[in-house]
């Protein structure tokens, strides 16, 4: 099924989302606030970029030569890598970091320094995931292949019985897949879909950009450390992959907790491609907030624990999500729409593991 064949119900003038947008707009106007990044966001951006890049320069300049300390620096880079992805490139590629397009463009390219590609991200994440959340065959975030089963509409295999155990180990390979062949395969799949052209690009241009950005990434973050780090080449290679496994695990877990839990829905369109609900109500049904009172977690993961607010307002910088969450919740309840939230990070982990086990059963 093509993405263009799925159509959501048309909202009315008094629709939940129309009312919600009015109330959120009133909030920003009454507070005289910008929807974009504020001073705290800029400080956070600088902090996370430094956490990612300072260890790199300490390694390649041989300022630090002790092997165990160098390992610590690579581990720090892993946490910084995930942090930059959550906070900087994510908001920028949604156009919510700044009102200036060139700033969003520049900061969005930080993804290229993480092993991924900004253009690919906009198609997979902005176009597909945000439009068709949890819809089988449309949302690539719930399409991990046959090794995992993230939807009740996907084929079941015997090994899925143990996915609640082995799945956590596989999560660590997210950014390894980014920097290898995953994005090239996606480009091939999207060649006839029109998704690439929708971004004002061509297939040939996208493949060339992927090749150049991958080459630049490997030259900067692998070849240069191999040449200049104080550790032997094979140790540097191991440390490089440890960095990616840490970043990949953190990123994967955070993304899964927002959509792959028992409370969220996995709806399908009818034979004509029509969905029963409007797009906004669909986002409420398929998305979940978690640990809303955990300020440290929220700071580090870029407000992605306020995933409901992010899906409804991806054009608002995440630093504002805690403030508008009460507006979203009260409006959703007023209209009798679902609003999923889990109180803690631990409870979200438990619920995700519970669903992995549930979908690992042949009966589900």
Structure description:
- The structure is a single chain.
- By secondary structure, the chain is mainly alpha-helical.
- The chain has one domain.
- 59% of the residues lie in helices and 2% in strands.
- The mean pLDDT is 94.
Secondary structural class: mainly alpha
Strand content: under 5%
The side-by-side strand order for the widest beta sheet comes to: 1-2
What Rg do the Cα atoms give? 21 Å
Largest sheet data: 2 strands, parallel
Distance between the termini: 23 Å
Low-confidence stretches: none
Number of helices: 16
For the secondary structure, the number of strands is 2
Task: Choose one word for the global shape.
Answer: globular
| Quaternary | single chain
Relative helix content: 55-70%
Number of domains: 1
Keywords:
single chain, 364 residues, mainly alpha, 16 helices, globular
Compact description:
The protein contains 16 helices and two strands.
Topology:
Elements: H1 16-31, H2 39-60, H3 67-93, H4 101-108, H5 118-129, H6 163-171, H7 174-179, H8 182-190, H9 195-198, H10 203-228, H11 233-257, H12 279-286, E1 288-290, H13 295-300, H14 307-312, H15 321-334, E2 340-342, H16 345-359
Parallel strand pairs: 1-2
């Amino acid at each position: 099924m093509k993405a263009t064949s799925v159509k959501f119900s048309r909202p009315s003038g008094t629709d939940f989302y129309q009312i919600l947008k009015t109330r959120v707009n009133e909030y920003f106007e009454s507070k005289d606030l910008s929807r974009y990044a504020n001073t705290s966001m800029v400080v956070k951006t600088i902090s996370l970029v430094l956490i990612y890049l300072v260890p790199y320069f300490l390694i390649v300049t041989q300022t630090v030569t002790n092997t165990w300390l160098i390992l610590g620096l690579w581990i720090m880079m892993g946490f910084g890598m995930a942090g930059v992805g959550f906070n900087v490139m994510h908001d920028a590629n949604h156009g919510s970091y700044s009102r200036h397009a060139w700033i969003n463009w520049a900061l969005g390219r930080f993804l290229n320094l993480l092993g991924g590609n900004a253009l690919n991200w906009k198609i997979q994440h902005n176009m597909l995931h945000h439009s068709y959340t949890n819809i089988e065959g449309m949302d690539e975030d719930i399409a991990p292949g046959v090794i995992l089963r993230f939807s009740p509409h996907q084929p079941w295999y015997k090994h899925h019985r143990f996915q609640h155990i082995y799945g956590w180990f596989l999560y660590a390979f997210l950014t390894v897949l980014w920097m290898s062949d995953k994005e090239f395969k996606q480009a091939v799949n999207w060649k006839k879909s029109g998704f690439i052209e929708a971004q004002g690009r061509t297939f040939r241009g996208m493949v060339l950009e992927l090749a150049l950005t991958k080459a630049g990434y490997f030259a900067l973050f692998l070849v240069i450390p191999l040449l200049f780090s104080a550790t032997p080449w094979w140790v540097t290679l191991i440390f490089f992959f440890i960095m990616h496994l840490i970043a990949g695990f953190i990123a994967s877990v955070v993304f899964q907790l927002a959509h792959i839990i028992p409370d969220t829905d996995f709806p399908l369109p009818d034979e004509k491609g029509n969905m029963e609900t409007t797009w906004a109500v669909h986002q409420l049904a398929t998305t979940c907030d978690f640990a809303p009172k955990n300020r440290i977690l929220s700071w580090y993961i870029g407000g992605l624990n306020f995933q409901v607010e992010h899906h409804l307002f991806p054009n608002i910088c995440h630093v504002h999500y805690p403030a508008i969450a009460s507006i979203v919740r009260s409006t959703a309840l007023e209209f009798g729409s679902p609003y999923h939230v889990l109180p803690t990070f631990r409870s979200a982990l438990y619920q995700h593991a519970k669903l992995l086990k549930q979908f690992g059963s042949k009966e589900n």
